[in-house]
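so i finally got all the pieces together for this one. its two components total, 247 residues if u count the protein bits. some of the lines might not be protein, just check the labels. i wanna see the whole assembly predicted at once instead of chain by chain like last time, that was a mess tbh
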Amino acid sequence: MALETEIQFFEENRAHYVAEHSAKYALIKGRECHGFYDTPDTAYERGIELFRTEPFLIKQVLPVDVLDQIPALTYGLLSASVRD
Amino acid sequence: MLQFEIDFQRVDPKGRTLLGGPGLELLGPVLPVVVAVPPQFVNVLLEEKKSVPQPSSGVALIDTGATRTSIDQSVIESLGLPPVGKTTLGTASGPRDATMHAVQISFPAMGNLGCLLPQAIACDLAGQEIPGQGRLMVLFGRDLLKRFVMIYNGPLGRVSLIA
């Protein structure tokens, strides 16, 4: 899965990120955090400046992730799906 | 302020075209949409002397039940957009991971009003056609809807979006 390293790094550091940067958006590439931003838009703009066309992770700093709900997918209402 | 009406029409027994009818109930609030590479990403491609993928046009269905906007996976792939996040979704076959991507989304019927969606979900909407409207490409979620006032007028068969 894409961004595995970045997600693992975030999880290792989630507790102290929450203590110091709650609700901000972390910008992570590899095993390095490149700052915390007020919005995902500004985190994206900085990520593009730094990493150009490479993948990077934008992750909101919360104690527990808020799950995304898309009932059309959950209940198969549209025959839509998420690919493996 | 910009206001856009999604109207459905019916023809009465005298042959007159009137607002209303079952269209809104049957199809839901749908509107034309264009999905493109974000301007910031375009600048990088141009600096690296790479070609910029062409935007994709289709139909968006406003989905007030969706926390976040979803884009058809094939569109994300055709635009060559790398992931910038991951989320877990409940699906009919259990929880599944999905990647998130930054896209530029715009609405031709609203004067090409557009915005950056920094973390739209990639999902497979292949084969989803909205009768008489076109290919379903976007499920327009509440992350996008929070930028609008929406009025759903069932009896009149009209949805108003005010930006």
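Chain B is about 15% helix and 50% strand.
Chain B touches chain A through 44 residues (CB under 8 Å).
anyway lmk what u think
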